[in-house]
């Protein structure tokens, strides 16, 4: 599977990269939010646009040909830094910081601002789906039963307000290469969206595991 | 329902705003992409960060207190410019430009770059869910049967490659306040993800319609 790139960075090198990219990507997230909400005048918008275009031109002088992919080393889990939900270098991602345990549970407390809106003041239903797809996959991986999403079903109980939220997920059961997981998003009043999904270990990963090749433990 | 704000802008005023915000938000989208893919040195990242923070500070001098919501006028549909899928002022949104007809069909050709990645080189499964939630809701609204998502089920047939894609959706059937819609995402090789969903007209909208109050025709 191309794109899972083994780079064997040390823990120290990874921390160094994170301390560089975390605050930079946070600044870009703030810009995304400000671009939606700003009410400054036309000239100021045009000035900001020209400056942003200048920054982009400089950043693009040296860049990856395609997307970020997933880097991984000899130990630890992969670094999906371009991932649309958890990617620390991706300003589309809130990003979620996911905690997990070996029993196949994953959970995350996070904040969604103006950039995740669907109906006024509410989280876009599809954003809850995006987050739950990631969380159920994280639970499957955490329990040693990684897979890619085969089916996912969302039940919307009520609107999810923009703001501070929590997501939880867990493995329901597992049979060979198939893992069923469940989860939900909640606010302080309780559950707003529930999800269930089937995750299947892809063939290329089964072949790599059979050949005892280095394989990432999660398929973000 | 707060957040659906009637502003009665003229068609000309709307076009004027779009011609200001479209290229600005596109520049921010380019920055999101460049932030993921850049390989320039640490000093250049720090310089870019400081500049972005400066732009944000200026944009925030005058801004909406909360999220953008949906603006609408006497005629035409609402302007969900902060929407996470179609919002022209939201750099998280690709954004999709959705076409529709009265029979309850909606379709869109769009491009997903590095910011929408899940597994390496592939669209995040949850991003396909996000797009299909929007598209099925658009189909329901286009057919005069708007609603908010109650349930949504995704079937992943194979990985969706990053790049040029298409999404289509249509109303399957409708009973009173309930509408069932289906749709899919496809690449040049065919369908990659299928979806079915149930959309229900919320009580507040039923009450407004009964009272013949101005009501947006879509619930993004």
Question: What do you see in this structure?
Answer:
The structure is a homodimer of 220-residue chains. Chain A is 32% helix and 27% strand. The model of chain A has no long low-confidence stretch (mean pLDDT 93). Chain A has a domain at 97-210: Hotdog Thioesterase (Thiol Ester Dehydrase, Chain A, Roll), CATH 3.10.129. With 220 residues, the first copy, chain A, is α+β, with helices and mostly antiparallel strands. Chain A has four helices and eight strands; from the N terminus they run E-H-H-E-E-E-H-E-E-E-E-H. The longest helix of chain A is centred in the N-terminal third of the chain and has 27 residues, at 11-37. Chain A has a six-stranded antiparallel β-sheet, covered by helices on one side. In chain A, strands 1-2 form a two-stranded parallel ribbon. The relative contact order of chain A is 0.14. The interface between A and B is large, with 89 and 89 residues.
Helical percent range of chain A? 25-40%
Strand content of chain A: 25-35%
What general outline of chain A do the C-alpha atoms trace? Answer: globular
Number of helices of chain A: 4
- CATH topology name of the domain at 97-210 in chain A, in short, is Thiol Ester Dehydrase, Chain A
Structural class estimated from helices and strands of chain A: alpha+beta
Largest sheet of chain A: 6 strands, antiparallel
CATH class of the domain at 97-210 in chain A: Alpha Beta
Strand order of the largest sheet of chain A: 3-4-6-7-8-5
Most extensive interface, residues per chain? A-B, 89 and 89 residues
Multimeric status of the protein: homodimer
Rounded to an integer in angstroms, the radius of gyration calculated over CA atoms of chain A is 19 Å
End-to-end distance of chain A = 13 Å
């Amino acid at each position: 599977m191309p794109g899972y790139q083994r780079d064997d960075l040390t823990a120290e090198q990874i921390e160094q990269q994170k301390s560089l990219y975390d605050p930079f990507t946070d600044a870009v997230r703030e810009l995304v939010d400000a671009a939606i909400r700003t009410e400054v005048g036309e000239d100021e918008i045009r000035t900001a646009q020209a400056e942003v275009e200048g920054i982009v031109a400089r950043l693009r002088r040296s860049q990856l040909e395609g997307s970020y992919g997933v880097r991984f080393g000899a130990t630890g889990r992969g670094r999906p830094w371009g991932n649309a939900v958890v990617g620390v270098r991706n300003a589309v991602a809130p990003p979620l910081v996911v905690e997990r345990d070996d029993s196949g549970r994953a959970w995350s407390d996070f904040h969604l601002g103006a950039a995740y809106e669907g109906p006024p003041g509410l989280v876009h239903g599809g954003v809850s789906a995006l987050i739950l797809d990631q969380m159920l996959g994280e639970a499957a991986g955490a329990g040693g039963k990684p897979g890619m999403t085969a089916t996912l079903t969302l039940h919307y109980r009520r609107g999810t307000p923009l703001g501070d939220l929590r997501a939880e997920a867990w493995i329901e059961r597992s049979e060979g290469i198939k893992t069923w997981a469940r989860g939900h998003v909640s606010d302080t009043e309780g559950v707003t969206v529930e999800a269930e999904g089937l995750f299947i270990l892809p063939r290329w990963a089964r072949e790599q595991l059979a050949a005892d090749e280095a394989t990432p433990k999660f398929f973000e």
